[in-house]
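Hello again,

I reread your note about wanting to compare the complex against the isolated chains. To keep things tidy I'm splitting this into two emails, and this first one only covers the full assembly. Below are the input lines as submitted, including protein chains and any nucleic acid or small-molecule components. They are followed by the predicted structure of everything together. The single-chain runs will come separately.
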Amino acid sequence: MFDWFPKNISTFGGDIDYVFKLIFYIVGIGFLLGELAILFFVVQFRRRDGQKAKYISGDKWPQLGWILIPTVLVLFLDLWIDFAGAKAYDAVKGEMPVHDVIVEVSSKQYNWIITYPGPDGVFATADDITKENDLHVPVNKVIKVVLKSQDVIHSFFVPVLRLKQDILPGRTTDVWFEATETGKYEIACAELCGYGHYTMRGFLHIHSEEEYAAWLAQIWPAE
Amino acid sequence: MAEQATSEVQHTEQMSFVRKYIFSVDHKVIGKQYLFLSLFMALVAGTMAYYVRWQLAWPETAVPGAGWIPEPTAFSGIIPPEFYNALVTMHGTIMVFFVGMPLLLGAFGNYLLPLMVGARDMAFPRLNMMSFWTIFTASLCMIASFFVEGGSAAAGWTGYAPLSADPIYTGVTWGLNLWIIGLALEFTSFLMGGINFLTTTVTMRAPGMTMLRLPLMVWMQITAAVLFMLSVGPLVAGAILLLLDRTVGTGFFLPGKGGDPLLWQHLFWFFGHPEVYVVLLPGIGAVMEILPVFSRKPIFGYRTIIWSTMVAGVLSFLVWAHHMYVSGMDPNLVMPFSITTILISVPFAVIIFAFMATLWGGSIEFKTPMLYAIGTVTTFIIGGVTGIFNGSPPVDIFIHDTYFVVSHFHFTLFPSVFLGGFAALYFWFPKMFGKMMNETLGKIHFWWTMICFNLVFIPMFVLGMGGHMRRIYNPMQYDFLKPMQGINQFITYSAILLLLGQIPFIVNFFWSMFGGKKAGDNPWNANTLEWATTTPVPHENFDTIPTVYHGPYDYSLPNQNEDWQPQHLEKEPAAVA
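Full-complex prediction:
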């Protein structure tokens, strides 16, 4: 059932998947009970000769209990889902942990423009390097991504990280993640951004520490 | 006022064909005009869904039967990306605003409301006529937008700025302007309709028809009208600002000129969420009329349902930002909106439980309208519970803008608009057209539609769990989506079958209208006032305005011979005790 998810390689992805599963089981059971009850009622109370329907207006309190008591249960389950959700949401979008690596992703129709600050760790200096559509980061490090858009709204979506963030033109939006596995994964645009929306695909390269050092050395050989 | 209406009606008797059937002020004729408009638009938007589905299943291959689309929109039947975006946009826009609303509010609201409250017509018949011709013009704008240079609107049915705010981003020029103008006209049309619904219900009820003796369909219609009137203002303002951005170069939504893209989203969704209930309430209102008739039982908890509807209506104004969890708005706003969103399940749980309790202990007859009513309830539950996933912010981070959302809102809107709409149509067709619809064809239509609908949309939840983004032209671009392409093809096969499943309906509809069995005044033995008058309904609805003695759902009263008790007849002495 949950095999349909893309695999999760972020530290907070497990929390998100947990809330999904929690909701799935809660509403799944409710759904099954509800549908079975309806099925039972329509079979049991189908029209038969000589049998009259019961007159129940449901306007009196004792009768209303039949629908209000299950409703209290619904309210309780809602609050459970709210609290579980708040905790997981806070992990992703709450206070950002101190980052190890910072990178800027700027979107435009229909490319991801990725800027690395270079060894000085500061943007808008001479050692900045800009690449298209390939985002290289180390594994097991907190990565801060500064999102900008040059034209319309795009949405930075990395399914394996369970991370999605719309990017509004005219302002910067920060997100973070920490990947737990190396590999090459896809970045997608999740917000309709024009006729080339579907081609707006990028790659997230998650390197081991040694690989990342080698990649850095290749990009900034002089230092 | 009443005198004026009477003299006018007598005058209409001798009126020309044009005044009687085209520019008519009779709510019954206007209701049927809305019905035909919405069914035609459903056909248009359904065809668009077919093109979209074909492209998703077999990307960039020629769509069978698309050859007629004039160049350069579709070359040799292969849908180009910009046309795909236009199809997605217009499918959504038309289905919500030109099928859902005109069918449920325009057709059934107009036709039923005066009959159900026991009035001779709407309070403002001319305004009513104007509301139809306004939406008719709006529909022409929408259809015309396909034939202007640059094609029709391609920024999604939500029209997010700045994509929609400057033609350079989509290449769409007048197509999107027409889309805005068409929507503004549609809003105007339903404002006029809503004023009529509300005024008629408040001021023109038959003697004895207290507010708490109104059929629930009327309650749902007027609640929908109020929700619409209170929510649409901001969006009309937004639409005008958007049109100004596009045509005279203002920058309300363009950050380069000091504008804010998020402003559009707030204005759109402040309207957008109540709008969902505008379309939903009349659909379940029909269910509320049909369940008691075919289970021969009162609706369970009449007043509780009304209160729950009002609570849901109020909450619907406090949830709009749940569409914007990942939009970049202040993350501190997210949890409050999530709590209100998930709480909305409470009033709807009450309503669903009330439906189930209505079935309990009934004597249920499975006529086509009843099958559709039960179908509406069973599928709407799926729409309701999947809303909890979307309403939970962490889960939404992952499933936002994926097929999970697409499937969720189809599971809310399809049951309401189509299953509820068909329930209503099969149920009130005898009154509207004086003929019975064919039961066998109706049942074939029901099972075919019901099964195929689920086969289309349940697999979409799986796509969403896999991260499949919505509104993408060619899923085969992404490696992580390729393994799911089989599901996309399965959905398309099912969608084609779903569309073909409407053939029995179309045959039944026209065949019954002209050659169906003649319907009596009250073929279902129902209590409400629309069945108290003769079929076909006379010009002023009732020969004499009936007096109402009790509520609409007194079925199977104890100590009584008949298992129904029409609202306009006094109870037998034995039953009063």
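For quick reference: Residues 1-11 of chain B have pLDDT under 50 and may be disordered.

B.
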